[in-house]
Amino acid sequence: MSFINIKKRTMSNTQQHHATTYTGDIVGGIPVITHLNLDDLEAGKIYRFMFQGSNMNIGQHWYVPVMVAKGSNPGKKLLLNTGIHGDELNGSRVIQQLFATLDATQLSGSIIGVIQAAPNSLFHISRTWYSSTDSGEFTNMNGIFPGDKNGNSAQIHAYLLWNHLWHNNCDYAIDLHSQSTDTEYPLFVFADYRNPAIKTMAELIPADQIKIDEGEKGTVETTFVEYGIPAITIEIGAARSYQSEYINRTLEGIKNILNHLQILNCPLGRIAASYGSFIGNQMHSVKAATGGYAEIKVSLGDDVVQNQEVALQRNAFGDVIHRYLVPVNGRVLSLGTGATREAGGLLVRILY
Q1: Could you give all domains of the chain from N- to C-terminal order, each with its CATH number?
Q2: pLDDT (tens digit per residue) in 72-88
Q3: Contacts of 5 (CB under 8 A, 6+ apart)
């Protein structure tokens, strides 16, 4: 028995699955819940809820839109989550498009779609959750799971998501992201290949690139994996935009996973092998050494060789003040798209 399975069994035995709880409130015509239990829902239907999260400094709650498709037949449960970072929007359209096509009477199992998981961050169009107490603080939500019921508003919100919405309602999880403001990815997957089920999930996505990755403590993906639930992170393009090609290709991959899990009977689309996904296990980030105007010399997906110039910076008069060479052979995974860069800002990231 693996460590992951032992941990899952131990933690599952210490947590009681609460019944679906309605507050009686209606927000935008949608009922508000504080807990979700799929076992309480009638099969063969699609549901919409507002999940009640932590509250603001004025005592009102943040609400998270949730869609649930519970199939007529029993089966696996897949969670699709997005909006942990508030400037990463492509994932919301993936979930919206998927649910627009679903017929719950044809499903075996359930699909949960969580949009705007961190509504505070969405409200501010920010990667971080802003807490206004005292002089204010910023929290990266994708580093504090499974949360803390006695923490600040971000930590409490993470605790509620994990314990009252996510953990007990899924067998598999996919966390949808994009790159941050002023940077971009292609369609890119993080996956912990130590778990064969996760490797399978990742390679059912027709991604441009896949990073074999053991994860980071506190992230959504890694927390699920630690609790014995196979999970991947899909990075979908750039921030603050809808990019239809990436959205549609992500949806194609998710349907492949739904087909593999026998939740949805649909044709198998392109996968990593047929699409030609580039798979690596290391990344190197070329970062600005100084402030200045950045000129990027490569494009996403370009193959680069050691000592190739990939970027330069100029001062306000147009003089070149720094040239950047890449120290490894690999493929361009991410770019800084903002023309101005401070010291430490991303210029180019290489997967190899």
Answers
A1: 3-278 (3.40.630.10), 282-351 (2.40.50.100)
A2: 999 999 999 999 999 99
A3: 228
